[in-house]
Amino acid sequence: MYWIVVLSSAGRAVPAMSTNDTIELEKIPGIGPKRAKALRVAGYETLDDLEAATEDDLRDVAMFDDILARDIKATVSPDDERVAVKQPNAVTPDDWRVTKRQLTHIRTLADDAPLELDAETALDLRDRLEFAVDPDLLDFRRVCGRVVTYDADTDEYHPVPNATVHVEDTDCSFLSQFPSDLGLGWFYPYDCTRETIATTTTDECGEFCVYVPTWDIDRVLSFREERLCLPEIAKPRLRDVLERPEVFPDPVRPPDLRPRPRPDPLPDRLFDPGVLERTTELLGDAAVRRLGAGTEGGSFGDPRPDLGIDLDRPAFPDPPEPPTPEGFRRPEPDERVELLGEELPVDREVLGAIDPDRFVGPFLACTDVTLPEWRTIVDVPDITFRVTQDVDGDGTEETIYSEGYFDVRWDEAGSVDVDLVADDEANSIPTCDGLTPENVECDGPSIDSVGLMPTRAPIYDDETGYARRINRPKPSGSTSSRPDGTAPFSGTLQLHGCHRFEEAEYYRVLYSYEGGPEQPFTGHEWHAPAIGRDPVHVQPTGSDGWYPILDIPYLESYYGESLGDNPLLFPYWLLNWNTRGYRNGTYEVRLQLGDANGDPLSTASARYAIEVDNRAPNLDISRLAWGKLSDPVEKWDNDITESCPQIRRPAGENIGIKVTFRAWGEHFRSVQAKMNGCNRNPTLYRPSSGGSSQYSYWHETVGDRNHRKTVAFEVPSGYQQGAYRLRLRAVSRAFNPAGGNSGPSTNWEYDNGRIDTWFTRSISITNQ
Hints:
By secondary structure, the chain is α+β, with helices and mostly antiparallel strands. The chain folds into five domains: 3-87, Orthogonal Bundle (DNA polymerase, domain 1), CATH 1.10.150; 89-170 and 194-231 and 382-428, no CATH class; 232-381, no CATH class; 437-612, Immunoglobulins (Immunoglobulin-like, Sandwich), CATH 2.60.40.10; 618-767, Immunoglobulin-like. The chain is 15% helix and 31% strand. Strands 16, 17, 20, 22, 23 and 24 form a six-stranded antiparallel sheet that branches. Strands 3, 4, 5, 8 and 12 form a five-stranded mixed sheet that branches.
C-alpha cells in the first residue's frame, strides 16, 4: 500500500490511494474502526468497493450521513479533479493560521526568504519556502489526543464528545516553585498572550487530531534547549515517575537533550521495599496496584499486555495543589507583596502579577540540575490547547480545559498522543463502546447485550446470570480443557436492547433482587454519544423509571432542528447501571414498554439474570516465619511478628521464609505469592517449583471458593543484605464487559483480574 498526495486546484493536499494492494478501511480518513465495521456489514470490503459505490449507497450504511458519504467518495475517487476534503475532527495544514510570532521564527530559519514574507496558512507558507528552508522543517507532524473527564472513585476516564478544541500560539512567563523535598514543582503563569491558530471538535469518542508544522515545533524546542532543565518539563505520565532515580535508582548517565522513550519499567520493581512506598506517595495506591497487577497468561508480575497503556496515563489526573508559604494565597496583590516581598527571592512585580490560585503542574523536578525553589522564566513559547463545550445548554460554550502548558512532548519520536483531562462539569459519556445498529435484529422487546457481551448461550447463562467463558476453572492436571465458569459482572454495566416499536414512546428496565418484588431502576442518567452533535442527556421522566425513546421526532425536538437520520452512535442503549451502588447478588431484569401516557404496554421482554459481585476476595495470613534451609520447613519456627521485622542471617547460611495464608470468597478465582528485593527474586522452595520464583493457584471447579497453603521461599547466603518484600494477591472472577482490559476476545474466552486484594510485608535481612 502507498499514499499519493494530490494537490487540487485550491492547493490543498488530498490523500489518494493506490489500489495495487488491499487497504484497510480503518486507514481511510474519516472512517475509523466502527464505521469500517458498518461498511463490511453492508458488503464494502475494499477500496474498489467504495469507488464503485455511489453517495446514495453510502448514505444507507449505518453511521453514514450525507456529509460523510460525500467526503468519503471525494477521498477515494480516482478523478484527479476531486474535491479536497478535511478529515473529520482534524486540524489540517490548510487550517493552520500562521501568527506573527511564528513568522518571526521562520525568518531566522530561511537563508533566502522572500523580503515580504507573509502567509495565511501553514500550507501557503510551505509553498513559498520550498527552496529557502530545510525541507525537513516544512513537513507536518500529527498530534492526536482525546478530551476526557476523570472519575476518581472508579479510576476511569470518560470521553468528552463534540467539544471545541482551540489550538493556540502561546507566549507566557512563569514563576516556578520547586520545593526541595518533594521532587515536584509547579508553574504560576503571568503576562500571557494567546492567539488562536485553528479549532476543531472532538468526535463522538472525544478524539481529535492536529497537523503541526515541523518549523513551529522547532520554535518551541529551540527555546527550551537553550535553557537548563526546561526541555524536561512536561505533564508527567506514570512511566515518567517510574523512571525517577529516587523511585528506581539507575546508573548515572549523561542527560539526553532529546530524551527517547525507554523500555517499560518492570512491574516487579514496583514492589522493591522503599520503591513501593515512594511510588505510592507520588501516584496513589490505585495507580500502583493497577501497574503491579500480574498477567494471567504469564508469570505473576510480568508486564501485562495493556501495561503500556497504563504507563502512558497521566500521573496526576487529579493534580495536588502546591505547598505555599503563609500569605501567598492572598487574592490582593498588594497584600501578597507586603507580606512576602522581603521573604521570597522573587521580584515584587512578578509576585504581584501572578494569580496564586492559577497554577500548572505538578511537574517532575530535573535530576541533574540543582533547582532554586523560586525562579522566573520569561516569554516561554508553546503550542497549547484550550477546550470549550456548551455544558449547560444555554448556547454558549464554557471553558472545560485550559492552562494547557507543556501538554505535548514535542521531543519524542514517533506518534504523539495527548490526554486533556477536562473539568468535572464537562458533559462526558460513560463509554464509547456499545451495541451498534448492524448488530441488532429486533423481533420484539429484548435485552440483547450487557456492555459488549451478547445475552445468549453459550457465552452467557440467562438463568444464573453468569458469563461462562471468562475466568474459567483450570482443573488439576489439565493443560487445555477448561469447563465453563461462573464469572459475575461488576462495575458500570451498559444494557442494550430492542425498544424501538411504533406503539411505544417510553421504556423502563425493571429488576428484582434475589427473587424479591419487582421494581424499576430509578435515578440513572448519562450522556449518549451522537455523531457530529452534542451528546444527548438521557434521564428519566419521573420517579417511576420511564425513559423517552430517543427516536428521530424526540431528537429533532431535543436539538431544535430537522434530522434525516438518527445520529445516536448506540441507539439501542437502555440503561447505564452503576452496580457499585447496589447489593451483590442475583438480579432478574426485563424491559417494559410504555405508551404516550406512560402506561405499560402488554408486550415486555423476557427476564434476564445478571449476577453482580463487586467484592474483593478475602486474604488472611496466619503465620510468617523463617529458618535455615538445612532444617525441614516444618521446623522453621522463627516467627516474624514485628511490625518492622529483621532477620539476622547466620554467616554463610542459606535461609528460607515461609508464609501460611488463606484466600477465599464467593467468586474466588486465584491467588499468587512471590518475594523480591535487592534486584532478586527468591526461588519458590516449597512446594517444589523447578526454579520458579512464584506460587500460584487457580480455582479448579466453579465450587472452589477457598484455598489454604503454606509456601516457602529460598534466600541464599549470596543474596545481598537489605530489604525484601513478600507479597500475595487474591483475585475475583468478576469482570466488566464494557470493552476495556483484555476483552472481548474471540468468543469471549479470556482471563481478567479486575478486582483483587493485596498483602505485602517488608522484611530486612542482615548478616550476623
